[in-house]
TrEMBL record:
InterPro entries: CBS_dom, CBS_dom_sf, Mg_transptr_MgtE_intracell_dom, MgtE_N_sf, MgtE_transporter, SH3_actinomycetes. It holds the Pfam family SH3_actinomycetes. The keyword DNA repair does not apply. Keywords: CBS domain. CDD domains: CBS_pair_Mg_transporter. The keyword Oxidoreductase does not apply. PROSITE patterns: CBS (PS51371). PANTHER family: MAGNESIUM TRANSPORTER MGTE. Residues 354-414 form the CBS domain. This is Magnesium transporter. It comes from the Bacteria.
């Protein structure tokens, strides 16, 4: 593990306070949610179970956790208050892993799990459980000094999915390393029953990524099998333009119910995107480009570009606007490509290097003109600006290609080298 990477023993978090960025307590830590993986690989940490007012227990994804220490947990402040429901692929660390009897791989000795430690992966927000603190001796024996040790996760056996049958959880672990497009290809060829099982077991962010790569019919089918509250969460996790396209495929009543369950800002973005003509720049754009104020620095811009959740097309450039800096913004000033950001000192103000010559696209610009614009200026994305000069969003080259390709292109067999596994009960 690289120096400086935080490691936290999970039992030390039991009952600690969870705070929002303003320092207000939102609840207390009650458990850690992890997903076991095949071949002795460290489990991935999915999130926390937090007890809030009224003893309600909710799920807090690790993507919304900005700090984990022995005395406190800090969040982004964005919390979904829907009651936590454990899924088939999820394991509660405090409730299910501690006190379990496992074996040391090298000696075969049976030991008891006292604690596990998680660490954050370098340059990423992902966390893994990499250490296990165990006690030698028979189950229930009193602890004695010198009989405990901390080992790598892979040094013990008794946790792995290989010990279970091939249900959705085992299948999901097999597919874990696949890119979203490749997993979507596999899902498309599963039976409806097994497709629903795997989709239900995926976490919201992973399912959102996969849905974006599926044909419309599969998207509607999978979304229809989810509980409405979770369907709304998954739509919020999707890119806004893809979520709006999926909502447009639903009956009006279903669409309105889901919009009512979404966060107001996300629902407003969806309604705004659906108001534009299909195939226009407004209908193709995403409402979440990188927006900076004129007094931001190159260092600020590069920190935003580094966000691993951004697609390469969205990370290729930033847009400088007057406040407010969320779409629709104040007056659009111009664009800066990330290559220009790399050529200037970190303290440089973005206002001094912004490109004001590149023309933005009106929201009613039609698809052929959008495609030509990207080709002429060698762009991965282009700003969409309304008559008042406010930035509405950005059109990316991947969304343009999606609409230029034949309508059934996602349903064609992908020759990516992905091998379809043998799946019991529902191939």
């Amino acid at each position: 593990m690289p120096a400086g990477s935080p490691r936290v023993f999970v039992s030390h978090l039991a009952g600690v306070a969870v705070f929002d960025p303003n320092g207000d307590q939102v609840g207390r830590f009650r458990d850690l949610v992890a997903m076991l993986r095949l071949a002795g690989r460290p489990p991935r940490v999915l999130g926390l179970v937090v007890e809030v007012v009224g003893r309600r227990r909710i799920f807090l994804p690790m993507t919304r956790v900005t700090g984990v220490e022995s005395g406190q947990v800090i969040t982004t402040g964005v919390i979904n208050m829907r009651r936590f429901e454990q899924r088939p692929t999820e394991t509660l660390v405090l409730g299910e892993l501690l006190d379990r009897r496992v074996r040391v791989v090298e000696t075969g000795e049976e030991v008891t799990v006292l604690d596990v430690a998680m660490t954050q992966l370098p340059a990423r927000r992902d966390w893994e459980i990499d250490k296990v603190h165990v006690r030698r001796g028979k189950a229930g024996a009193l602890r004695r000094r010198g009989e405990t040790l901390t080992v790598e996760w892979s040094a013990v056996t008794g946790f792995s999915l290989e010990e279970h049958g091939q249900g959705a959880e085992n299948l999901l672990a097999t597919f874990e390393q696949l890119r979203p497009a490749d997993l979507a290809n596999v899902l498309h060829h599963l039976s409806a029953k097994r497709r629903g099982e795997v989709a239900a077991a995926l976490d919201d962010d992973r399912l959102a990524d996969v849905l974006e790569e599926l044909p419309d019919d599969d998207q509607v089918e999978i979304l229809g099998k989810l509980k409405e509250e979770r369907a709304a969460d998954v739509l919020e996790a999707m890119d806004p333009d893809d979520a709006a396209d999926l909502l447009s495929e639903l009956p009006e009543e279903d669409k309105e119910r889901l919009l009512a369950l979404m966060r107001p800002r996300d629902a407003a973005d969806m309604r705004r995107l659906m108001s534009y003509e299909e195939g226009s720049a407004g209908g193709l754009m995403t409402t979440e480009p990188i927006v900076l104020r004129p007094d931001a620095t190159v260092a600020d811009a590069l920190s935003r570009v580094r966000n691993q959740d951004l697609t390469p097309a969205l990370a290729a450039q930033v847009y400088v606007c007057r406040p407010p800096d969320e779409t629709p913004t104040g007056r659009y000033l111009g664009t800066i490509h990330f290559q220009r950001l790399l050529r200037d000192p970190p303290f440089t103000l973005v206002a001094s290097i912004v490109d004001t010559d590149l023309p933005p696209l009106p929201p009613d610009t039609q698809l052929p003109v959008v495609a030509s614009h990207l080709a002429v200026y060698n762009l991965l994305a282009a700003p969409v600006v309304d008559e008042s000069g406010s930035l509405l969003g950005a059109v990316t080259v991947d969304d343009v290609l999606d609409h230029l390709l034949p309508s059934d292109w996602r349903e064609r067999e992908l020759h990516t080298g992905v091998t379809m596994p043998e799946v019991a009960d529902g191939r």
